[in-house]
Design a protein that fits this description.
Blueprint (H helix, E strand, L loop, with lengths): L21 H15 L15 E2 L7 E2 L2 H14 L4 H14 L4 H4 L5 H11 L5 H14 L3 H8 L3 H5 L1
Antiparallel strand pairs: 1-2
């Protein structure tokens, strides 16, 4: 705390270089900055990234709703398997939570995602629970997810 200017300095250090949670760390950092920021001009909301097939595959194209839904099913199936599978699954859900809201709000995806994260946040492993909380935090930027989590069983588990 700088008393003459009444300003605070907050230092945040990422302790891991795990690529799967970089977006969640950035989101967490930006949300903390926004919460502590007194100048609203400095506070910006994170930009969601579109789902697309990378140019390195020879072409760039937007993923269809059906392709997205088909692509996320293995993530949900992994969440019911071994510890390592659950960890990888919830890390992938962290990445998915940063993507285009159109896909995240698909009626065939949202309820399944909310239910899966509610289960993962109660996992016996800290790593799984922590990533589930980060995914929930990223998704609650969307009003529909905020409402879904409020009406779910996850809040008593978090508090």
């Amino acid at each position: 705390h700088d008393k003459p200017t009444s300003a605070f300095t907050v230092a945040v250090r990422k302790v891991s270089c795990d690529c799967s949670i970089n977006a969640c760390f950035t989101t967490f950092f930006n949300l903390m900055k926004t919460a502590l920021c007194t100048d609203t001009a400095d506070c910006v909301k994170p930009v969601r990234k579109p789902f697309c097939i990378p140019k390195s595959c020879g072409w760039a194209s937007q993923v269809s709703d059906e392709e997205f839904l088909e692509g996320v099913q293995p993530i949900f199936r992994m969440a019911a398997c071994s510890l390592e599978s659950r960890i990888q699954s919830v890390k992938m859900l962290c990445d998915v939570a940063q993507k285009d809201a159109h896909y995240l709000e698909l009626p065939a995806f949202q309820p399944q995602c909310v239910q899966q994260l509610c289960e993962l946040v109660m996992d016996e492993t800290d790593d799984v629970r922590q990533h589930a909380v980060m995914a929930i935090a990223a998704l609650t930027e969307l009003d529909s997810y905020r409402e879904a989590f409020i009406h779910s069983s996850v809040l008593p588990e978090l508090f």
